[in-house]
Specification:
Layout: E1 7-11, H1 15-25, E2 29-36, H2 39-45, E3 51-58, E4 65-72, E5 90-95, H3 98-108, E6 117-118, E7 128-133, E8 139-144
Parallel strand pairs: 1-4, 5-8
Antiparallel strand pairs: 2-3, 3-4, 6-7, 7-8
Length: 153
């Protein structure tokens, strides 16, 4: 039986640059940094002689981890993660104080794709959301969690 999402893996071009974004800018905690190689890694990745640099980030409001993977000696093709392309993905992150988070991101030079909107009908109804880009242009959706002290509509 499937129970929950354990982690979301993102292949990155530069592990340190991505750790800076997901841990420092988004306020997560780095959980280890490893280099993995050898026959097991060759078999599971399909790349002979690859070195996989791996780290996890635990974000403060969630349970699932973000796994960051840099393949040294893997494919040289860089995927265009544009939202309109089949197979592209995005990561949605709960945040408190969306305006403050966006101001910090502007200061850091993080690309913000629009002003926040209020989500319509569905699981995010009434929440303010906006997309930003991580260092590899992966879309990260910031979802403002409701203020528990605010009056309910």
């Amino acid at each position: 039986m499937t129970r929950s999402v354990n982690h979301v893996g993102i292949t990155v071009g530069d592990l340190e640059r991505s750790l800076d974004f997901y841990a420092r800018v988004l306020g997560g905690t780095t959980v280890g940094v490893w280099e993995r190689s050898g026959p097991r890694i060759d078999a599971v990745t399909g790349y002979r002689g690859v070195v996989v640099r791996q780290a996890f980030v635990r974000l403060p409001l969630g349970v699932a981890l973000v796994e960051l993977l840099q393949y040294v000696g893997g494919s040289t093709v860089v995927t265009d993660p544009d939202h309109g392309r089949a197979g592209s993905v995005h990561l949605a992150v709960d945040v408190e104080g969306l305006d403050e988070v966006l101001e910090r991101m502007r200061t850091e030079g993080v690309p913000i794709l629009s002003e926040p909107i209020t989500a319509g009908e569905g699981p995010l109804e009434g929440r303010r959301v906006v997309y930003v880009l991580d260092p590899d242009r992966v879309r990260v959706e910031l979802v403002e969690v409701p203020d528990p002290s605010a009056p309910r509509p």
